[in-house]
Amino acid sequence: MTWAIVMLILMSLVKIVLTCLPTGVIEWLLSKFEVHAKLSGENASLSLDGKRLKGTEKQKVIDQFNEAIFLEKYYIYPGDEERYLHPENGGTPLVIDTKKGNKDVKLFVYRYDDHIDVVKQYKKKVIAYRVLSESLQKESLSVAGSLA
């Protein structure tokens, strides 16, 4: 009988601790499973058609990427990664090299009229998803024109 009471008290304490976690812990847990992670200027290097973006152009593109709205994640079948990394009608991608923790991450950003496709590649994994950002779609086109 005493074991039942002790177990009830322990389970109640575990429930209270798990349901009342501090905000910092919750944000850390959510960032572990976040698909569209935020970029920082010091860790990211951007290139378009082999030419690096620097200064205010780089910061503007990073801010617009961070403000983009996540729409959906694509399921990539095994062996079908190349189709997402080099799409037929994708054009020239904006390539973002960054670090997440101790992992090197490469993002390929493909612009379309109604959305933006982002392909995230790290280690041997490839994740593709769609975001919506009118400012990034329009602004990136002018950046591409100024670099050409």
What features would you describe in this structure?
This protein has 148 residues and is an alpha+beta fold. The protein has two domains: 1-33; 37-147, no CATH class. It is built from five helices and seven strands, in the order H-H-E-E-H-E-H-E-E-E-E-H. It has helices at 2-19, 23-32, 55-66, 81-85, 134-147, and strands at 45-48, 51-53, 69-74, 94-100, 103-111, 116-122, 125-132. It has a seven-stranded antiparallel sheet. Helix 3 (55-66) packs antiparallel against helix 5 (134-147). The longest helix has 18 residues, at 2-19. It is elongated, with a radius of gyration of 21 Å. It starts with a helix and ends with a helix. The model is unreliable at 144-148 (pLDDT under 50).
What's the topology here?
Layout: H1 2-19, H2 23-32, E1 45-48, E2 51-53, H3 55-66, E3 69-74, H4 81-85, E4 94-100, E5 103-111, E6 116-122, E7 125-132, H5 134-147
Antiparallel strand pairs: 1-2, 1-4, 3-7, 4-5, 5-6, 6-7
Helix pairs in contact: 3-5
